[in-house]
């Protein structure tokens, strides 16, 4: 009997403890991170494809033409991090390739594309003499690329679909590596035999002896496409229409600046890229390297990713993918 | 008493699950950030059903047992050497002092160069995270054996090997088990983080790779499914394996209440 009493006291304790926990959870849920008013955060990644963003930041184009708005710049290591930061409301504008944007859109992210940024040479690089085409890639080869679902992965899948009818043909041979790690792994000539990469790593690798290209981005895609686009959240578009305008203008200005003064741009960029001014100028004017605010290739990416089931089957029209359609090019 | 403990655990589990669901129902967070339990369970069931998760789980468990076994053998060897030789002891103590505070993740860039991004790399990281705490625990275990036990053994005319097996091993078992528990927990962490960094080391990959894949495809319920599997495995190993070993040995022998 006494034993029973003890148990019920324990039970009561347990219940009251749980009540306290419930209450405290509700109290603390009140103080989740509130967004600081009037701050716009812009996030991009490493690589030459983002050069106009760097110019825009260095020349303070956006800061100079907005009032009462604080601009914050962030560099994040990969697209997934940008996507998560945008979901958390920490980042308003993010730069990424089209496939990761579509994956997020498909899963319900409230975001749309603002503008294009760059068209870049992408390539599948190898040190193995024996690999001349995709068909020469054996099961033992390992392919380094930034991550599954990245534009490099989707391009590889597109090429695999076209040549072998199976987009997933190489999916079990992928190794996730950021571009610098992937380059080092390829150059050490060990088990990473192939690297799908972008500028400036693709330039450095192609200047290396014994490294050659199996496939380029345009062949894989079947035409030209925007490599990187700028994406804005719904929150940003609805609440900051003037900043949106100014952002687009500044972006156009810096793209124009790079295209018309590559020498000056290289001088400005060299501080941030750890590449010499001469090499930088060579890289940003490399054939196929094109800074451009048009959005190209969106439909083809969408159709392919839907067919290969990287995204769901619900159809979207162009106004669900772009905030404004005047930069869209079919 | 035992039943009571189980009941309490179940109570708390249900309690936490309820809180989760209440937060979801409150609608404070977008379902993208805070998915409901049903979508998480659906994701879990889906991944288990198509065999993807099961294979990756088996692969992870296999590589962990391998790492644990190698570390165990190395640790016993090192602890014994240190126990019987002063020079070995000072060397091993120095090694432990150097390597124990070093997180496996900090070694990743080197591991990539030395071993590549393959299976050995992950194995190396696991062994590194398990070996040192295990050596430390075994050393403490051996040195905590009262001299009188050994002396009694000598009185019985036991030789060194017999003393080792019949007296030192059981007498240091509680420490050994603690070392094993720490090793197990740390090997899980090492494995998951290594896999998330390296990606798939073979064609299937392990649990860490599963979570990473779900992350890059923005499948949050899938991420939670992976985490739940890790939790369940952790609870099962703790409750079933370690508790059973303890009940049959140190508790039965009266070394631990």
Descriptive report:
The complex is a heterodimer of chains A (330) and B (257). With 330 residues, chain A is an alpha/beta fold. Chain A has 2 domains: 39-120 and 227-329, D-Maltodextrin-Binding Protein, domain 2, CATH 3.40.190; 123-221, D-Maltodextrin-Binding Protein, domain 2 (3-Layer(aba) Sandwich). Chain A contains 15 helices and 13 strands. In chain A, the strands form 3 sheets. Chain A has a 6-stranded mixed sheet, with helices on both faces. Chain A has a 5-stranded mixed sheet with strand order 7-6-8-5-9, sandwiched between helices. In chain A, helix 2 packs across helix 11 (241-260), helix 2 packs across helix 12 and helix 12 crosses helix 13. By secondary structure, chain B is mainly α. Chain B has a single domain, classed as MetI-like fold (Orthogonal Bundle), CATH 1.10.3720.10. The model of chain B has no long low-confidence stretch (mean pLDDT 86). Chain A binds chain B through residues 7, 14, 18, 21-22, 25, 29, 32, 79-80, 83, 87-88, 100, 103-104, 106-109, 142, 147-150, 172-177, 181, 184-185, 188, 190-192, 310, and chain B through 4, 8, 11, 15, 19, 23, 28, 30-33, 112-113, 116-118, 198-200, 203-204, 212-213, 215-219.
